[in-house]
Each structure stands twice: as structure tokens, then as C-alpha cells.
Amino acid sequence: xxxxxxxxxxxxxxxxxxxxxxxxxxAEVKILSEGECQYEIMTVGSTRSSxxxxxxxxxxxxRTIFDPCPNFDTVIVPxxxxxxxxxxxxALSAWLKAQSRSCRRLAAICNGVFALGAAxxxxxxxxxxxxxxxxHLSKSFPRAHVQSDQIYIKDKQLYTTAGVTAGIDLSLVMVxxxxxxxxxxxxxxxxxxxxxxxxxxxxxxxxxxxxxxxxTDVETVQRYILESLQLPHTLNSIASRVHMSARNLxxxxxxxxxxxxxxxxxxxxxDAARRILEKTDQxxxxxxxxCGFETPEAMxxxxxxxxQLTPPEYRRRFHSGELWQSDKAALDSGGDD
Length: 337
Hints:
- By secondary structure, this protein is of the alpha/beta class.
- It folds into 2 domains: about 1-200, Class I glutamine amidotransferase (GATase) domain (Rossmann fold, 3-Layer(aba) Sandwich); about 215-330, Arc Repressor Mutant, subunit A (Orthogonal Bundle).
- It has 15 helices and 11 strands.
- Strands 5-2-1-6-7-11-10 form a 7-stranded mixed β-sheet. Strands 3-4 form a two-stranded antiparallel sheet.
- Helix 1 links the parallel strand 1 and strand 2.
């Protein structure tokens, strides 16, 4: 029998699903392998008492960080509303540092990565987190390389993920590493999830999360772009609105927003198209024209590059009502209508 020991950290205000999802996935391994493979899971509390999750459910941990613990193969830190309250917990940071020196894998789900950062474990590492916390993570730990669109990232010993349900994605990665793809695929089928989820966090999050300072040339450019997406913009035409050279605008815009003006324009057009796809039954041709794409095919290519989804696929996932018949026809024809 092959066994893998897992320590799951608990702290006040942790996200219950970040623990329950992986735990259920790991438990299924023993059932599907008929006892040949299994995970031995222990919960470890950051306090000596029972711990309430962010949903209000109380959990009594098996051990605490103040008790002797086995040498875990894998340590998982969940996210949750309480993570920012425990970031300055010296005892917790010391425990995480000690675990990082002895375990094979150290993982953080959602914003649980902030606890690893507080323990000094993110320097030089490429990490992910929930898209809503990505900017905060970058500012808090500037020596970490934050990739905000990734569902999960593995950087040597360190594993980090996007929000909430991404913990299940992470657990399937671990099952495949530990016991092979067939068993991981069996767990995924039982849980009715994909073994590898298509697309990144961008399919769920707004792309334009940068906002220039008010009353600046960059803010003027952003407002102009958002109000005139349908126009055939070029870098030169945009720069002329604020009487700047294309080169100078690119430099100033990238410094303030982190992206080029044309990348901002592309994301703005995709976001506008997403809103229409979510709320209307307009055809792909109508949406493309309204949002400034030259053709439906150009819109499809932009979606595929940025979201790893086509516009019809996006509508299928996120339409607020029933799947429109015109959308279904578009899917069947490849999405060019």
C-alpha cells in the first residue's frame, strides 16, 4: 500500500471548501484503488481551541501547531477571510518555515498564499492567487512573481492556486503526481469535474482591473478608448488625442497601468463583448461590430488568445438566462456568425 501524508492547516476564518474539496478528492483515491493507495490526512490548527470557518462551521483540528506533528509529505494552507488576521502570527510563520524545510510539497489555496508570503517563502517564486487578491499580493510581496490568470502554478516545491474550487484542481494534480493519471481521472469523473480545466481565471474576472489616476493624460486615454471601442484605433490615433508621440504614450501608459495602450484596448473590447454575450442574444457579427473587432473571426481569435475560449463557448458558460438558439447555431458553425 502506498501512503501520502497530508497536513491541512486551519485558522480562524478559513475557507471550508478549500479543505473539504481536496479532502474529498483524496478520500476517493482509497475507494477507487481498493485500498492500494491512500492519503493520511491530519488537520492542524493555529490555535489550541476549535476553529470556526468563514461560513461559521466549527472544526476541531487533530493537532495544533504547538503539538508534535508527523513529517508531512504535503502541507496545504487554505485561504479565507481570516488570512489577513493571521499573517502576523509569529508562531504560525515559524511553523510554516519549519514545514517548508521538511515537506515535499507546500501548497496554498486562494489567498492562503499570503501566509506563505508572511513566512518569507515567496521570494523569487512564481505564484497565483484569486484574481481579486493578485494586485494586493504583488504589492505585499514584490519579490514574488504573481501570475493572476493561472488556475494553479507549480514552482518546484511550492504549489499555489486561484480561488476556492481551484483547490480541487490542485488535489487532482497531486493525485496524478502521486498515483498516476488513470486514478486522477477516475477521481475527476467521480467529482464531475475536469482533470484539466480549460482557460484561466480571466474567464471569470474582469480584465480591466487597472485604473489610471484622475485628470491625467492616461486617464483621458482610457476614457476615450472605453467610449469609442467601435472605432479603428491605432497607437498613433490614440496618442494624438492627448498630443503625445506614440512612443511617449506607450512609456507613460505602461508605467501607470502595467500594460500598453493597445493591450488595454484589446482587453476593453473583450470585456465589452463579454458583457453583451452574458446578457443578450445578439449575433456574433453584431457584437464584433459594436466592440470594434473587424470581423467575428477577429473577435474569436482575440477570445482564444486571452481566455482560451471562443465567444460562443463563453456565452454557453456565462449567459444569465437560457442558451439562445442563435448561440447554439453559432457553436455548431464554429462561431463565425
